[in-house]
Design brief:
By secondary structure, this protein is an alpha+beta fold. It contains two helices and four strands, in the order E-H-E-E-H-E.
């Protein structure tokens, strides 16, 4: 499976609780698409959320967000894990 980092840019600040709820919804939805959301990071003041995900392809990763909560990423990058 490939590894991807996605970036969400929201209008205004992001609450950590809101990001946590969205991630929980991803975890409940991911199996239907063969996806594994691993971690996420939040820049609350800038309205940014970053998600690390294992997925067969970009569309599968995006489909989880679309179905789980509707917050589709603005950008999705293939990444390679380093130390």
């Amino acid at each position: 499976m490939a590894l991807f980092m996605d970036v969400h840019t929201l209008p205004g600040a992001v609450g950590l609780t809101d990001a946590e709820r969205a991630h929980a919804a991803d975890l409940q939805t991911q199996a239907r698409y063969g996806v594994n959301y691993l971690r996420y990071w939040v820049d609350p003041a800038q309205g940014k959320i970053f998600c690390l995900v294992e997925a067969p392809d970009v569309e599968a990763a995006a489909s989880v967000h679309r179905e789980a909560h509707g917050l589709v990423a603005d950008e999705i990058y293939p990444v390679t894990e380093g130390a």
